[in-house]
């Protein structure tokens, strides 16, 4: 991870408490060692983990906690807590990472998935509303991540909406890496790619503001072969990358998702390596770029130490980009309307 190893601890006198749901699943298996080892919050920050999964996974979850103990991580508080009761997992958490969600099954339509997850994220929002601290930071990963985060935020008014985000960093990292491969440069030399909109195949992976030491801002589209190449190859490659991994592995991305979660949490809590660096996060829209206020939308943001971010609202959007922003916004509006229709029936 960039720049976290020597970071001053956020909480020098205590452990940072991180609740993780879906902790018996495959992303968690890659994520928990990153959290426990200090790769995310620095090599001087103690870490307490509170793991949640469904009762049916109890023995797997227990096995995962045994492995965490056997890792003998110097920063990890022991014993590791695990439970199937959300209230216990979320109590006193500084950070809540929500991996647990209902997966799409063969024959299921998108609206069935929204209904199943609407119920889960409504319930978890209500629990957080009762037990979480106002300063708790929430990261939703379980799909459909943007809309699950929106549902949760509707039922969790105790946590300010700016403290609820969802993951677009995997898409951001995928784009950064693709640009590096195309330009034969180091990933660390690629700056300010952006992901806009939904974590789905309508997302807009944008290189308009990206630069490297050899390619200045404004020249990246040309360096990558021009708009037709972006449209026919680069944009669809990123939009469909999750599906590509799923088809090959027969399992969705987990190692890269865990790495992206670590990047998202590190930048959000400790700040980006440079104050000017843009990273992509799904956050509640403030109306920037004409995106409906309140919609959970991935924007390029700046992050500052202490869990703060600011949407970069001054980028100039041309007609090429505007078309993509509208497609992904429309998808998110229809997901939101469907999810709200479903959860309103549960009230
Ligand atoms: N946003 C992203 O970039 C991104 C990337 C990769 C995967 N994902 C999503 O992340 C989620 C997790 O992926 P995974 O590969 O770890 O899945 P997984 O199926 O391996 O694990 C999910 C775990 O969640 C648990 N779970 C289900 N409902 C729960 C609930 N209500 N409370 C607590 N736990 C619950 C399950 O028992 C399971 O152990 C999936 O929805 C996946 O689509 C998102
Ligand atoms: O789990 C999925 O559907 C895919 C995942 O969100 C990914 O982007 O890899």
Automatic annotation (TrEMBL):
Lineage: Eukaryota, Rhodophyta, Bangiophyceae, Cyanidiales, Cyanidiaceae
A Pfam entry, by short name: Ldh_1_C
Domain of life the protein comes from: Eukaryota
Binding site for NAD(+): 53, 117, 141-143
Record domain Lactate/malate dehydrogenase C-terminal: where: 169-339
Enzyme Commission (EC) number: 1.1.1.37
Protein name: malate dehydrogenase
Lactate/malate dehydrogenase N-terminal domain residues: 18-163
Catalytic residues, chain numbering: 199
Any Gene Ontology biological process: malate metabolic process
Keyword Oxidoreductase: yes
Keywords, alphabetical: NAD, Oxidoreductase
Record's keyword annotation contains Endoplasmic reticulum: no
Binding residue positions for substrate: 104, 110, 143, 174
Family per similarity comment: Belongs to the LDH/MDH superfamily. MDH type 2 family.
Top class in the EC scheme: oxidoreductase
InterPro entries for this protein: L-lactate/malate_DH, Lactate/malate_DH_C, Lactate/malate_DH_N, Lactate_DH/Glyco_Ohase_4_C, Malate_DH_type2, NAD(P)-bd_dom_sf
Any one GO MF annotation of this record: L-malate dehydrogenase (NAD+) activity
């Amino acid at each position: 991870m960039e720049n976290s190893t020597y970071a001053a601890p956020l909480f020098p006198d205590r452990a940072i408490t991180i609740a993780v749901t879906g902790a018996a699943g495959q992303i968690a298996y890659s994520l928990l060692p990153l959290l426990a080892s200090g790769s995310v919050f620095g090599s001087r920050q103690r870490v307490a983990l509170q793991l949640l999964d469904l009762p049916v996974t109890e023995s797997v979850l227990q096995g995962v906690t045994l492995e965490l103990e056997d890792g003998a991580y110097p920063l990890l508080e022991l014993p590791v807590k695990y439970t199937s009761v959300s209230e216990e997992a979320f109590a006193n958490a500084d950070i809540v990472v929500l991996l647990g969600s209902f997966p799409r099954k063969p024959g299921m339509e998108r609206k069935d998935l929204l209904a199943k997850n609407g119920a889960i994220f409504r319930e978890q929002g209500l629990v957080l509303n009762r037990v979480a601290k106002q300063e708790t930071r929430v990261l939703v990963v379980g799909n459909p991540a943007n809309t699950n985060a929106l549902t949760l935020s509707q039922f969790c008014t105790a946590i300010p909406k700016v403290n609820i985000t969802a993951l677009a960093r995997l898409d951001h990292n995928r784009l950064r890496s693709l640009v590096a491969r195309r330009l034969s440069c180091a990933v660390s030399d690629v700056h300010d790619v952006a992901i806009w909109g939904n974590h789905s195949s309508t997302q807009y992976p944008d290189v308009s503001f990206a630069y490297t030491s050899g390619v200045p801002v404004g020249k990246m589209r040309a360096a990558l072969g021009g708009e037709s190449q972006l449209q026919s190859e680069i944009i669809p490659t990123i939009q469909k990358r999750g599906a590509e991994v799923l088809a090959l592995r027969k399992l969705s991305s987990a190692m890269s998702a865990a790495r992206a979660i670590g990047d998202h949490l590190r930048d959000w809590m400790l700040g980006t390596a440079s104050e000017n660096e843009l990273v992509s996060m799904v956050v509640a829209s403030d109306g920037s770029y004409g995106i409906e206020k309140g919609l959970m939308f991935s924007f390029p943001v700046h992050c500052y130490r202490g869990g703060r971010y600011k949407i970069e609202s001054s980028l100039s959007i041309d007609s090429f980009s505007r078309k993509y922003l509208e497609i992904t916004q429309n998808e998110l509006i229809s997901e939101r309307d469907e999810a709200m229709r479903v959860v309103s029936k549960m009230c």
